[in-house]
Design goal:
It is a single chain. Helix content is 39%, strand content 17%. By secondary structure, it is of the alpha/beta class. The strands form three sheets. Strands 2-1-5-6-7-8 form a six-stranded parallel β-sheet, sandwiched between helices. A six-stranded parallel β-sheet has the order 11-10-9-12-13-14. It is globular, with a radius of gyration of 21 Å.
Length: 351
């Protein structure tokens, strides 16, 4: 089966969407499928007004349609709601290709935090965008329920995974900082609610890995915090392994891959009792969630590391890929027969 994923989020961006899509592409190969990407690469991009760190692709006229037809996929999956996702959606509707979408980002909440855009307006647009597809995939049970409650039709769960070979305990690793080390990893932006973590009076050290538009201001306001910038691969895994508690202050994330990376590294989690965080950790004794984030951080230092690792071992990218493929079949956009006879290209039938 040949799958084409259209996404506005791509390298050099560093975020959960990009990591999810790349990990999915690697995992599906062992399951008899292949993924091609339609991304902003080799396209002109423009910065959003008043928010220059966010850049959107400006595809040449007809470029998205040409790329889709040149690849001739059995299935089209639209991962984002930006220009590429919008043009891919329009082409699929015009040519009769059925397609699926996925919900990665709480765009309505983020837009309301940055600009004077009512959240209800954005939710209405998102509902219009996604309901044209055969299904919308969401990572957690609570988000599936929320989207259904907001009028999204045909929502299916697509869980995430973690590379447990890369993210693992590494005894003896140390950052040379006073312990305990409280770590946060992710995009340094207003919607991540990092201020709630950085302003805490905690023993030991506070460390932030990641970059983003809020980094300079936060670093100036919190000179006691160690900002390490972006880290990837082994360098990132080493930092996880050298920390003692992972702090996740976000109240708006849809999932938080960094939670699984931390747990796989043996780190207990401290955070707020919001749906996305609760969905990830469940009832396992691997996290402390509470409205008093300082108390949660201190209590998390008493959690053993082995149960954290064992919990993460149950969540692999292979299982995530299996669910993704099962959703394609469940939504009726791909069948075993269509996958074997790709020359038929059934999705090209016009409506």
């Amino acid at each position: 089966m040949r799958i084409l994923i259209a996404t506005d989020a791509w390298h050099p961006q560093v975020n959960g969407v990009v990591r999810t899509l790349r990990s999915l592409a690697e995992a599906v190969e062992a399951l008899g499928a292949s993924i091609s990407f339609l991304t902003p690469e080799r396209m002109r991009t423009v910065a959003l007004p008043s928010y220059p760190s966010i850049r959107l692709a400006v595809p040449p006229p007809g470029e998205v349609a040409r790329r889709i037809e040149a690849i001739g996929p059995d299935v089209v999956h639209i991962a984002t709601e930006g220009p590429i996702g919008h043009l891919a959606r329009r082409h699929c509707l015009r040519t009769g290709r059925r397609f699926t979408t996925s919900f990665h980002t709480r765009l309505a909440d983020y837009a309301a935090a940055r600009w004077p855009i009512p959240a209800d307006v954005t939710w209405s647009w998102l509902r219009w965008f996604h309901n044209a597809g055969a299904t919308t995939m969401a990572p957690t049970p609570s988000l599936v329920a929320e989207l259904q409650g907001r009028g999204f039709r045909k929502v299916m769960r697509w869980p995430r995974g973690v590379d447990v070979a890369l993210f693992r305990p590494r005894p003896g690793r140390d950052l040379g900082l006073p312990r305990p080390v409280f770590l946060s990893v992710g995009r340094v932006a207003v919607e991540k609610n990092l201020e709630a973590f950085l302003s805490l009076d905690l023993p030991g050290s506070k460390v932030v890995v990641g970059d983003g538009p809020a980094r300079a201001a936060l670093a100036l306001r919190h000179p006691d915090v160690k900002f390490l910038g972006e880290r990837h691969g082994e360098a990132l895994a080493e930092v996880y392994a050298a920390a003692d508690v992972f702090v996740f202050p976000s109240r708006t994330d849809t999932f938080g891959l960094v939670l699984l990376e931390a747990l796989a590294s043996g780190l207990p989690v401290a955070g707020f009792p919001v749906a996305a965080t609760q969905d990830v950790v469940g009832d396992a004794p691997i996290a402390v969630l509470g409205d008093d984030l300082r108390a949660a951080c201190l209590a998390a230092t008493a959690i053993a590391r082995d149960p954290c690792r064992a919990y993460a071992m149950t969540m692999t990218w292979e299982e995530s890929a299996r669910r993704f493929l099962a959703n394609l079949k469940g939504a009726g956009v791909w069948t075993e027969a269509a996958g074997r006879v790709s020359d038929r290209r059934p999705n090209l039938v016009r409506a």
